[in-house]
Design brief:
Largest sheet of chain A: none
Number of domains of chain A: 2
Largest interface: A-B, 59 and 60 residues
Oligomer: homodimer
Order of helices and strands of chain A: HHHHHHHHHHH
CATH class of the largest domain in chain A: Mainly Alpha
Strand content of chain A: under 5%
Shape of chain A: globular
CATH superfamily of the largest domain in chain A: Tetracycline Repressor, domain 2
Radius of gyration of chain A: 19 Å
Helix content of chain A: over 70%
Number of helices of chain A: 11
Number of strands of chain A: 0
Distance between the termini of chain A: 58 Å
CATH topology of the largest domain in chain A: Tetracycline Repressor, domain 2
CATH architecture of the largest domain in chain A: Orthogonal Bundle
Chain lengths: ~200, ~200
Amino acid sequence: MGKKKDAKERILNAGLKEFSSWGFSGTRMDKIASRAEINKAMLFYYFSSKENLYQEVLRHAVRKILPKIRNIILLERNPKGFLEKLPEIYINFFSENQDFIKMIAFDLIQRTDMIKTTFKETIGTEFHQGPQMVLKKIKKWYDKGAISESDPLHFMINIISLCLFAFIARPIIETIFNQKIGDQQFIQKRIKSVINLLKQGMLK
Amino acid sequence: MGKKKDAKERILNAGLKEFSSWGFSGTRMDKIASRAEINKAMLFYYFSSKENLYQEVLRHAVRKILPKIRNIILLERNPKGFLEKLPEIYINFFSENQDFIKMIAFDLIQRTDMIKTTFKETIGTEFHQGPQMVLKKIKKWYDKGAISESDPLHFMINIISLCLFAFIARPIIETIFNQKIGDQQFIQKRIKSVINLLKQGMLK
DNA sequence: AAATATATTAACCATATGGTTAAACCAACC
DNA sequence: GGTTGGTTTAACCATATGGTTAATATATTT
């Protein structure tokens, strides 16, 4: 096999790179083909359309993150552990998968319906009632007096915002504040800062 | 005048709407034209190219937010006041200018060089050494023992993340957690939650 | 009112782009 | 060695799209 079955995989990788750099409409099929070092017709042979290739790439990527967070988010029974472990996992994953993040970010803005569908599909099959269960768990923590944020939704938004945003807004942050982001030092500091803020700010 | 000078303004508005919905390459000049209710040739008559129109729209939008935050960010001498006032201004502005946010968000991902230039231009002329001064001010607060976050950059990233992210990630948050965002109730709660978290988490 | 400058339009153009096709290639099996 | 089924390619195609042009309408100036 070797070369043969590689093609599909190479296309998916090239697709991720291109789509995450240029968005759906900015991406050219020719460029994906040349990046994957195959003839353009192969794209359509394996994936039938740009739209479809895009969805496959997205699915492929979404499936990568879910298993990583599922265990923490569902199994952790203690708010302190939750606020210590989740940011580290999120931030490390995001900093290691910036293409993925960019692609998601594009969808957040532009192709909202599609990403809703993709997430529903993927969450539906692999994640079940996850999100609702998490909200319930957080509510219980509040009722027991373990945390100070009364609204579970904002509790979660706070965490995700602090972990993700820096990696989306990276270029502008670098420009405005004239500092480099993305090296290991920044990431470690980011993890620390987020965990400190969350624990001190939401734990009782 | 009336109808006449309107055209340019109408084009800029239509441009903002279209560019923020579809990104640069996803936006069609014809659609901008029809939204602005003018002939397509007018776009090129006034703005000479898509690229140029895009930049004008972006500049137009960036200039709107800077004055709003400048005073707070430069004049506020007290960390408590800073953390109370900034989130409210940010979140209200973002929730009222979602097109603007979306357009910026596109640039953050896709056209990083351009947004760097635009910001440098606009900040350069209208904002001066603002960002550096803010970082210095925050450093002083830390040295005086008024705040617990030692890194001024992360201090600022924390604030902006918490204020902005929800409005970018809105569709996916709504999907995952099955809740509606964007109505007045959510915004008020968001402001409260952010201010609480920031004060409790970063003030000493 | 004539002349001049500005605004507006319909019809075009060149090229880029997603997608197709028909033929060739190649491995495995008989 | 030939047949079969998947894989790969070069050459095409139809259409969409950014951009142009030349003529016309509308103000503005003299």
